[in-house]
Structure formats: structure tokens, C-alpha cells
Write a structure and sequence with these properties.
Structural class: alpha/beta
Largest sheet: 7 strands, mixed
Number of helices: 14
Strand order of the largest sheet: 2-8-7-6-5-3-4
Helix content: 25-40%
Strand content: 5-15%
Distance between the termini: 50 Å
Shape: globular
Length: about 400
């Protein structure tokens, strides 16, 4: 008897989120009573600030529980416009704003609405795990440009130029970076902009969701600030998840030319219709209200970043570049590839190493292969210092047992 094949060829070309898969494996181990330190997910361990929660409760009691327009509540779009003006010195109109159920949906809407089959998207690696799969899902072709620790994890103008072809539709990058914590300085962005200025068909998607989480004396610069001459083909992607500890609320937003945001909003109208009305009110409160929480959280992330950079940097053979932003460490672990575990299993690659660290070290990490480069592992330090110190000790011990 023939069985129905439910998965399409398009769906079969992509993976489930690797970081979420690792986190689910860690959760299953904990359910069995094993004490696992989970450094796999990029999720703040703080509670959402009280004034944001109060705004959501107020929205519900006032009956703001119905559909909104696809481009969102006017009060949220105004809050986003004011955020760009206040924090970035950028002027956007209300019709140049799009919102989605998380920044990931903004990416979905943008690529769904703009890519033709075979269009290329240049993506520096390491990249966030979902970038390439989202491009592929919408008929695009990711063009990966490797940028390892020896390159400070950043694409150079020369490599960007070499990657652009007549089929290139987008250049997509992330600063501060997930997974590396690298931040592009203003001069570096301007140099990339000089290349892109010669390719008028190429649009730029700058993922700036970690904008506020700066862990070193390297100021954040928005691509739109560095390259104002490219404003008419630049989409800035941001959201409230990371800075305001609102991952589960699901609210991302973007700013760009109105001909582009109109396309995003049309795609939005045919998917979720709109993000949660309650979350929209909460997001407006996050952007417009007191910002004390952000400063307090970032100070803690800085301390944690210094702790993990020092701790993992002291492990023999581990190559560490201290994070400049976000809340990730991305150490290179080449000397441990090819070694054998105590049971004789060979650590063939960083995926096998991450699996070994989970099963034997009881620490959940994500392999570099998920981000397009090997051999690395990504560690989130969005957890307590006690957990981080325990993870350092466990990983050092597990690595020492490899032969």
C-alpha cells in the first residue's frame, strides 16, 4: 500500500533549527534527571520588565484583543519611528515600517516577497542558523562567504565584490553577530557600501537585533547610518526579543523604503495577518518606556562575556576571540577534531564534538557546522555566572579526556 508523501521537495531541502534541536535534546536529558547546562539557545535568562507586562495586561483589559492591520497598530509604528530617530538619528515615515511575529518572520516576508527562483543572496559565514534555509525555502540560492576567526569573523570588501554576480539580489549580514559577537565598525560598513554602490540591483538586509547588546568598547553603527546613500535599498531588521527579554512575545520589525515595506506587509496579510495585538502594545511600551533594564542587562552580559572568554581561552587548544556584542562565544576547537572519546568513538567534526560535550560533559552547545563554518562551537552566555563557570569546568574536563 502506497503511503502519502506529505513533505514537499522544497520542505525537504531545509532543516529544523539546529539550535532548537540541541536545546530539545538537553531538555529531554534534564527530564530524565540529568543535570545539563544548556548554552545552546540565544535567549535572555531575565524576566520581561514589569512595565512591559503591565502594558500587555492593560491592553487585554481595554479589549485590544482583535486583529490589527498587517502593518500593525499606529502606536507601535510610531514608537518604532521614534526609536530610529532617537537612538540612530534615522528618519523613517510610518509607511516605511513593517512588523512581524518575530524578526524571523520579517526575513520570511522579505524573501517570500522579493526572490525569484535562482536569485542569489550573499551571506557571510558564520551566519545565524536560519538565514540560508529561509533563502532556500523561498527559491533563492545562498552564496556563502567563509569568514573565520582569522578574519575577525567579518566579510571584506574584496570578498563581497568577488561573491556578487548578475544573479545577486540581496546581501544579508548581522551586526552584532550571532554566533560570533563580532561588530562591524562604521569604516568597515562604509567600505562594504562602496562595493554595493556599484551594484544597484543588490538590496541590503542588515540584521541589527543585537544592537543594544554591546560587550566591548566598540560602538554599534547601523548600516543606514554608515551608508545613507544606500537607504533606498536597505532593510533594517530589528525586534524586541533580545534587548527586552521578550523572546516568547514574538515581535520583530523592519524599516526600509516604502515600496519594499509594502511588499512585506502584503506577505504578512496572507500569513499571520498581524502579530498579536497584545504583544504590539507591549512592544510599544518596551520601545517608548524606561530603558533602565537594557543598561542593567547589558552590564551583566559584559561581565559574563569576559568570564567565558577568559575561562574558555584558558583551555588548551581552544582559540577564542572575545565577543564584542550579542551574548555568544564562538571558540575554534580544531585540535580536538580527530581525537577519540574514552569509549573509542572518534570525534570526526564539530558536530560530533558538540554531541560528545552534551552526552559526556552535560553541556549543550551548537556545532559550528550549523552556522556554516567548522570546526567551532557556539556557546550562549545568556545564563547565570554559576552556570557558566560550571560549563567551563565540565567542558575542560571532557576535552581533557579525549585522546
Amino acid at each position: 500500500m502506497n503511503m502519502i508523501a506529505f513533505e514537499s521537495r522544497r520542505a525537504a531541502t531545509i532543516r529544523s533549527s539546529p539550535s532548537m534541536a540541541v536545546s530539545m535534546a538537553a531538555r529531554a536529558m534534564r527530564a530524565k534527571g540529568e543535570h545539563v547546562v544548556d548554552l545552546s539557545l540565544g535567549e535572555p535568562d531575565f524576566d520581561t520588565p514589569a512595565h512591559i507586562v503591565a502594558a500587555a495586561v492593560g491592553a487585554m483589559t481595554r479589549g485590544i484583543t482583535r486583529y490589527t492591520a498587517p502593518d500593525g497598530l499606529p502606536e507601535l509604528r510610531e514608537a518604532i519611528v521614534q526609536k530610529f530617530k532617537r537612538e540612530n538619528g534615522l528618519d523613517y515615515a510610518m509607511d516605511e515600517i513593517s512588523i512581524g511575529s518575530g524578526a524571523k518572520q520579517i526575513l520570511f516576508n522579505a524573501f517570500l516577497g522579493t526572490l525569484e527562483p535562482g536569485d542569489e543572496v550573499v551571506v557571510p559565514a558564520p551566519y545565524w542558523v536560519s538565514y540560508t534555509d529561509i533563502v532556500t525555502l523561498h527559491g533563492g540560492v545562498p552564496v556563502i562567504v567563509p569568514c573565520g576567526v582569522e578574519d575577525a569573523f567579518k566579510i571584506t570588501p574584496e570578498r563581497l565584490q568577488a561573491a556578487i554576480t548578475p544573479k545577486t539580489r540581496w546581501f544579508l549580514f548581522n551586526s552584532p553577530s550571532n554566533p560570533t559577537g563580532a561588530i562591524y565598525g562604521a569604516d568597515e560598513l562604509k567600505a562594504l557600501g562602496e562595493v554595493l554602490a556599484h551594484h544597484p540591483r543588490v538590496a541590503i538586509m542588515s540584521d541589527e537585533i543585537y544592537e543594544h547588546i554591546v560587550c566591548a568598547d566598540v560602538p554599534f553603527t547601523s548600516f543606514a547610518n554608515a551608508c545613507p546613500h544606500l537607504r533606498d535599498r536597505t532593510l533594517l531588521v530589528n525586534g524586541v526579543s533580545k534587548a527586552y527579554a521578550m523572546t516568547g512575545w514574538r515581535l520583530g520589525y523592519a524599516a526600509g523604503p516604502k515600496d519594499l515595506t509594502r511588499v512585506l506587509n502584503k506577505m504578512q496579510s496572507q500569513s499571520t495577518t498581524c502579530p498579536s495585538s497584545i504583544t504590539q502594545v507591549a512592544a510599544a511600551a518596551a520601545l517608548s518606556g524606561p530603558q533602565d533594564f537594557v543598561a542593567t542587562a547589558v552590564a551583566e552580559y559584559r561581565a559574563r562575556g569576559a568570564l567565558v572568554a577568559t575561562g574558555f581561552g584558558a583551555i588548551p587548544g581552544i582559540e577564542v576571540r572575545a565577543p564584542e556584542g550579542a551574548f555568544y562565544l564562538f571558540p575554534k576547537c580544531a585540535p580536538y577534531i580527530g581525537k577519540a572519546a574514552p569509549d573509542g568513538t572518534v570525534i570526526a567534526n564539530d558536530t560530533a564534538l558538540a554531541s560528545y560535550l552534551l552526552t559526556e560533559g552535560k553541556v549543550a552547545t551548537v556545532p559550528g557546522a550549523a552556522f556554516g563554518v567548522e570546526p567551532y562551537i557556539r556557546l550562549s552566555f545568556a545564563t547565570s555566572r554559576d552556570n557558566l563557570m560550571l560549563a567551563i569546568d565540565r567542558i575542560a574536563d571532557a576535552l581533557a579526556r579525549l585522546r
